[in-house]
Write a structure and sequence with these properties.
The structure holds two protein chains of two kinds. Chain A is built from 28 helices and four strands. Chain A is mainly alpha-helical. Chain B is an alpha/beta fold. Chain B has helices spanning 44-51, 73-77, 95-104, 110-123, 139-151, 169-181, 196-202, 226-236, 243-246, 262-265, and strands spanning 2-13, 17-29, 32-37, 59-64, 67-68, 80-84, 157-161, 188-192, 205-210, 213-218. Classes of the chains: A mainly alpha, B alpha/beta.
Amino acid sequence: MNLRLILHIFRKDGLEILRDKRTLFVNIGLPVLLYPLIALFVVQMIQLTRAQHVEPARIAGVEVPAHLGDALARAVAPPKDDDDAPRETPAKTPAGAPGMPRARTAAELIAVAPPLREALQQHALELDRLTRELERQRPATGAIAPPPTPELLDLRARQETERTALLDLLRDNDLAVAVIGTGDANRVVLAPDDANRHVEEARRAVERALEDYHRGLVVERLGAAGLGAEALRPLERSVVTVAPVAESIRTRLAGMIPLLLVMLAISGAFYPALDLIAGERERGTLESLMSWPVARRDIFLGKLLVTCAAAAISVILNLLSLALTAALAGSQIAGGAGAGVSGMLAVGGGTLLLSFLVLVPITITLAALSLALAGLAASSKEAQNYLSPLLLVVMVAAGVAATPDLRPSLVLDLVPITGSVLVLKESLAGAALPVFHLAMASAASLALAAVVVSWAARLLDSERFRYPGLVRAGWGRFRRWGLGEPLPNGLEVMAVFAIAVGGMTFGAGAFMRWQHQWVPLFVAGPLLLFVALPALAHCWLGAYRARELLQLAWPRASGLLRSGFALPFAVLTSIAIGSLQPAPPPDAAGSGMLEQVVAALRGNGLLVELLCLAVIPGICEELLCRGTLLTGLRRSLGDTGGVLISAFLFATLHLSPYRFLPQFTLGIFLALLTLRTRSLLPAILLHAGHNALAVLLSDHHDTLVQVLPEPAHRLLSAIAHLPAPVALAIGLAGLVICTSLPRRTAPAAA
Amino acid sequence: MLVFDAVAKSFFDPSRGEVRAVDGLSATLGDGVTALVGANGAGKSTLLRLVTTLLTPDRGRVLVDGLDTRLQPEEVRARLGYLSTTTRLYPRLTGRELLGYAGGFFLRDRAALAARIAAMAETFDLAAFIDQRIDGMSTGQLQRINLARTLLADPDLLILDEPTTGLDLIAARHVVEAVRAARRPGRLIVIATHVLREVELMADRLLVLRAGRLVFDGAPATLGGGEALEAAVHDLIGAPLTPLAAAGPAAQGLPAPPPTTPEAAR
């Protein structure tokens, strides 16, 4: 890595980006202009609506009790603090927040003339009577309805007639609701026209009036019983605000803010990514750049730096603009909410700092992904097509974290964007900074970024990236001419791995379905069919050489020795990691698939157990993971990436969260062993031996004690009593030594 | 010194199937100017891209000063200047910024780089437009900037892929002059071209390619000059001149042009 050249590229590409009007507009112009413009628009709209004359909802009160009539008149009284009614002292309505536009009473009470009044009352009361009559005759719920009698049919017909007549009256007079007295002070009939535009406002006004009237009636009765109005409120309560408004709003927005930040970051990275890679090819400058003495990785890193800077600037500007707009417009629109947003942004200096801390790895990952995807495209138009799905994936990954009850956990930390967003959400919500999760999530994001950078650097190095016109001549045995690719690439072997995972999941399903019968068949079958067979078939169909792809070669004796020496250390490491992490629940159903299989295999005899858990997995999984996967991933990602990703996939293949860390660690050393010895056999032996020993130690301890000589047994129990961290350190050290000791060059061979 | 050692490179073309762009070609090129001539698709550009490490050979090796292009691509790229028909320049940079960017990959020292840029500006007479933006320059100005860019680090190996294609008479002439001026001991210039007149003017050695194979390797003068050279090269690339063209202008009822020699043209 040449830092001088990376910065050289950074400076020039940054300068070019600054001179690109489109990127400037999206990354700087839009945030600076967009929020004030939107706020201006909203303020204008609100003022426009305020000034607009709103047609009130029309309410008619017919023969209602006098007190209810007064209550109705109060409920529809014009707003007192309106501009056109300054004569009265402004009174705050209890419903409206301070500073909010006051809820306007857009209703009016209509005085109705006698003929209409009588018609309304007549039809409404009749309709009410008929409806209640029909209600009474309705059979009980669940009973079978008898065929309607002529009387019932007659009632229904009359109800319909009355309904139509009443509706016509309401419509003809443009009434939203009619409130009709029955002559009984304790009973009124409401006749709303639910299809009327203003019916909701009218109903609210009527409800308020009824509430008022209802209260009056209650107070009256209480008075008759010798009680005052205060008897209505046996409990007085009041709430005092303790937390600052800004903080409580922040907690409520904690799920949304990280999502917003991530979306801002990726949209900030979007155009620079397009311009820096696809644009370079489109403008014809790629060829000369590629002919200059600079490593492809440095080119990519330089461009990554520019993309990250653009994304960061975009996020900062967006937030600043948002805060300023909220502060300025807040006083005008909605005092509470506006002050809350601006307060949150202004107050939470530490929060902002943390946000950036969390955002850095996410931004690097997103920028690397955008750049690499843009690199796959032949033009910036095509690159946009590739980047849109990425936007969607990121949105989902960040959106998942906004789920209210989701909290950081070890598994979620490892999901690149989701983990970081969760950490940010957690700390925004006011919890103590989850340092461990922050570290894990950042490491996961950066690991993904490193893989992407490594992949993209190799992509830049491929001829087909520089000359997209070059077409492949077909694949493997199906190619039409010439030599095939000497080795598969990472994507190709991932497809083989997908078959294996699908097959193993299917096998696990079958195992569950058959109620733990024929267990050996369900363990060995999927391994042979879906793990070993795809690896071998892929090698044959792809016309690859088994020696190079699957590492099927005889190792030197030293390779086998390495494997033998590594065995006890591998077992020690696995056991130590197992005891350091949370133990699986004791009932088999709650644990991973592997634990269930192991439990079900017990009682099939030691030989079957060893065959199913050690020998067959050793051979099958090594063929796939250290053969196909390791070789293909190394070709696309280099040695480090190949070893890490193949170990990761190997660990996921076991379908058990509790086996993940031990298998991941084992996978790394199995891969290193294969690289070192250039043969699959030592890894097969180590893997099978590790599994066999694990089975013997856990389930057949007594047999082992009988077979082993006394000193070995004593050594074993001494090791078993080591503290787990010490055991882990010894195990790892042993594995490192066994897999990385340099090969002794035989003098005769030189 | 540039060595092609049994180099082969194939492509797949959906309509033609396998295309052996370079088909087991061997040659050793020393100092001076070597011209590469052949019909379109004969493998000229592919051969040059193999030298610049933009492509890697399927078989065989390409050695630049003894360095294998496949094994030490960056060292090879540090020794060469490459200019092709498809080379474009960053439109949003000024001429000076572009030269600084390109040169920064070759020269660590900023002062030395600035001095080289000044020298190049003088050689190619860039002073009038070097601080303008690339997207505002004319084709001739662009080609001069491009030549300056290629020669900036004073490379020992110059690879020019049809540098005069698409240029007007004056700009093309400028390129020819520049190539002739760029000759120096220890420098190899390989130039692919379709213009045999340029071969006569510039090249010490001529390679004629046909379907990825070398069909002629020698001094251009051995094939004669002017129309004789043209007829010979056309025969070599498998497209002999028609009798009408071979008979010259007189057969078409046109006045004969005055006789020219390479010396007269200079």
